[in-house]
Amino acid sequence: MSTSEFPDYALEEVQVVTEPRVVKAIFDPLRGLLLELLLERAASVQELAAAVDRPRSSIAYHVKVLHEAGVLQVVRTRMVRGREESFYGRTARLFSVGDVRFDPGRETPGFFETAAREAAPAIQADDLRGLTRYAWIDREKAAEFWDRVMELVAEYGRLPRTSEGTRAYALLTAMYPTDHPRLAPPDGDGDGPPAEG
């Protein structure tokens, strides 16, 4: 269980997600936003609806999808005007996508598209930090490196979320196999620069 003061309820540090329906649930843009808000503290459907300026009925639907997917939990309840109101929290601080296979031709999660839309104002303001690097490594080395990246992501996710006078900064991480081109080995014996011709 997490020992960080954020959020105000107990949750696991990491939950590995392996079902396509769960991945689709968490990578929906609005549901992803709701999950992010719940890293601050537990909240009711009414509070979530007010935070994202959406109808309560719409947010109730999305909370139900996340709850049924096993990534939201009811962390406490209270009585309000004779009715029980539930406060929801995440089941884990970090959802790590495991080995998931999506049906060909079906819609897959669009978290890169969501990030691109969200980052547009930062690009306009020249305030986007981004970098792509390529390395030719085996699967085991890639897995080892990704574990180290996830440690940094976990640290980032434990930062205070409610400091006054600060801005939200999104951190997007990705690692994927690609057919990026590479240079052929240099001519000669490899002990120096290629001979001039």
Automatic annotation (TrEMBL):
SMART domains, per database record: HTH_ARSR (SM00418)
Record-level Gene Ontology MF annotations: DNA-binding transcription factor activity
Pfam family, one: HTH_20
Organism superkingdom: Bacteria
Spans annotated as Disordered: 178-197
Domain HTH arsR-type: 21-117
InterPro entries for this protein: HTH_ArsR_DNA-bd_dom, WH-like_DNA-bd_sf, WH_DNA-bd_sf
The protein's name in its UniProt record: ArsR family transcriptional regulator
Lineage: Bacteria, Bacillati, Actinomycetota, Actinomycetes, Micrococcales
